[in-house]
Amino acid sequence: MLLMRTALVSLLCLLPVPVWSEPSQVLLVRHAERALEPAGDPALSPAGQQRAQALAAALTQAGVTAIITTEFRRSAETAAALAAQLGIRPQVIPARGRDAAAHVGAVAAAIRAQNGAVLVVGHSNTLPAIAAALGAPLLPDLCESSFSHFWVLTPNAQLGVAPALLRLRYGAADEMPSAGAATGCQ
C-alpha cells in the first residue's frame, strides 16, 4: 500500500502544474468607420480603412496573441490588418441572433480563456458591457460618430484587486457628435 501511494505521489509530481489563465491585457476598440451601404452589413469606409491601418500600426509590438471580433464585416475588417501582420486568425463570436447579454457573456468567456494581450473589436452597444463583465467600471456610452476610443484593461484577478483601466485614443480625431446625439455619449 505504501509503495502504491509513493508511486502515485511520484506520478502526480510529474504532471504539469496548472497555471491561472487570464490575459495580461484586454485591448478594447469599437469597429472603425463604416460605409453607408449595404445597410445590413457594411464594409469599412475609406476613413475606416485608414483607422484599421492605424490600429495595426499602434499594436504591432503590443504582444497581441488573440483577436476577438463579431461576424460583421466592419468588426472583422477593423482587425484584419493586424491579424495579417501577426499571423493570427481572429476568433469570431457571433452577435446576430443573440441577445446582448448572451453575446457579452460569450465574449467575456472567450477573453478569459486567453493568455497574453487580447484585442477585442466590438460595437458601441457591447464594449461597455464587455468591459464591465471583466470587472471594469462601466464605460461611457459611445456616440455614433465615435471611433477613436481605445481602452486597455489589465485584469488583476490573480492579485485579488480590481482591473486597471486606461483610456486612450488612436487614429484620426472623431467628428463632433451631432445635435441629436445621445446626451453624455463620448
Description:
With 186 residues, the chain is α/β, with parallel strands linked by helices. Helices cover 33% and strands 17% of the residues. It contains five helices and six strands; from the N terminus they run H-E-H-E-H-E-H-E-H-E-E. The protein has helices spanning 2-14, 46-59, 73-86, 100-112, 127-133; strands at 25-30, 64-69, 91-92, 117-122, 149-154, 164-169. Strands 3-2-4-1-5-6 form a six-stranded mixed sheet, sandwiched between helices. Strand 2, helix 3 and strand 3 form a beta-alpha-beta unit. Helix 2 (46-59) packs parallel to helix 3 and helix 4 crosses helix 5 (127-133). It is globular, with a radius of gyration of 20 Å. The model is unreliable at 1-20 (pLDDT under 50).
Question: Spans of 5+ residues with little confidence (pLDDT < 50)?
Answer: 1-20
Amount of helix: 25-40%
Biggest sheet character: 6 strands, mixed
Please report the total strand number as a whole number: 6
Helices, by number, come to 5
Distance from first to last alpha carbon: 68 Å
What is the percentage of strand-forming residues? Answer: 15-25%
CA radius of gyration:
20 Å
Sketch the topology as an H/E string, one letter per element.
HEHEHEHEHEE
Whole-number mean pLDDT: 85
Shape: globular
Structural class: alpha/beta
The neighbouring-strand order within the major sheet is: 3-2-4-1-5-6
